[in-house]
Amino acid sequence: MQIFDTHCDALLKLQVAKRNALFNGELLDYQHSDLLDTNFNRLKAGGVKVQFFAVFVHPDFPSDEKWQHALEQIDLFYSEILGGNPLMKHIKNWQDIEWLKDDEIGAVLTLEGADAFGNDLAKLRHLYRLGVLSVGLTWNNANLCADGVGDPRGAGLTVLGKEVVLLNNEQHVFTDVSHLSINGFWDVMELAKYPIASHSNARALCDHPRNLNDEQIRAMFKNNGMIDVVFCPQFINKDSDQATIPDLIRHIDHLCSLGGVRQVGIGSDFDGISSYITDLNNASEFPNLIDALQKHYTVTEVEGFMYRNFLEHRPGI
């Protein structure tokens, strides 16, 4: 069974390793490295057909260095993920997914937080040209576009942030709400043609600000948005760094109870989490999740969660 995973942080790990290698370390081998949850071999073993790779620039970096950090990660996407693995194919537009051969894996670039381009929309347009197909306006912090879930102010989108959403619409690019403040979320609902929560769970089951409450979930489904469940234990069980596959399935159950059986997907957050679901420690173990889901749902429904729902809700469809 194919799997589309809408969030991982392998690019950040590759960048950190490269910067350390300038001193006395070694570059990570994307095909084999055990330090990468989503290395090529693990994607193949787990049945991943399309993997999203996030560009994430930490908000603590000086503003005049953030663009460089983003470009370094994108360069590694081209040189290490695509360049070193001929069976990894860059998805530059959503139709490219249709042309993947049986033994190929699609690679999608995404942006997690507008910090990388600041208030320079020419830089954002350059990111589109480089292949970015999903843009999250914030990480947990506030920036020039909006407030994130970790900012106590909790403000919505700025004028700039609203302009970014409209540009995303024009480019058939997702606007990702996973790290947005609640007020920012509702601003996106008014503007976005292609909303996605690339890695979020249900707040009713785990009261964490990174999760979505029932009103938000219903709004996402009403607006044709996808919600992709995340594997981070802290977003599955409140105040815990442990979780099981049945714990994660409870979140899928809840999303389906709110009308989302055809709008639920997977956004693992592999390579961005420090603790794991039992028996779901890296991309090679996706079959464990599929086996568990098939005890609760039909094959058609499980195929929906794994990939078909995404195909039906990608921009331009």
Average pLDDT score: 96
Q: Which topology does CATH recognise?
A: TIM Barrel
Integer count of domains: 1
**Cα shape:** globular
Instruction: Figure out the total of helices.
Output: 10
Protein name: Diguanylate cyclase
Short description:
Pfam families: Peptidase_M19 (PF01244). The protein is an alpha/beta fold and about 325 residues long.
What does it look like?
The protein is α/β, with parallel strands linked by helices. It has one domain (3-313): TIM Barrel, CATH 3.20.20. It is 37% helix and 13% strand. It has ten helices and nine strands. The protein has helices at 10-21, 40-46, 63-82, 121-130, 159-171, 182-191, 214-222, 245-257, 286-293, 299-313, and strands at 3-5, 48-56, 88-90, 105-112, 132-136, 174-176, 195-197, 226-229, 264-266. Strands 1, 2, 3, 4, 5, 6, 7, 8 and 9 form a nine-stranded parallel beta sheet that branches. The longest helix is centred in the N-terminal third of the chain and has 20 residues, at 63-82. The two termini are 22 Å apart. This is Diguanylate cyclase. InterPro entries: Metal_Hydrolase, Pept_M19. Pfam families: Peptidase_M19.
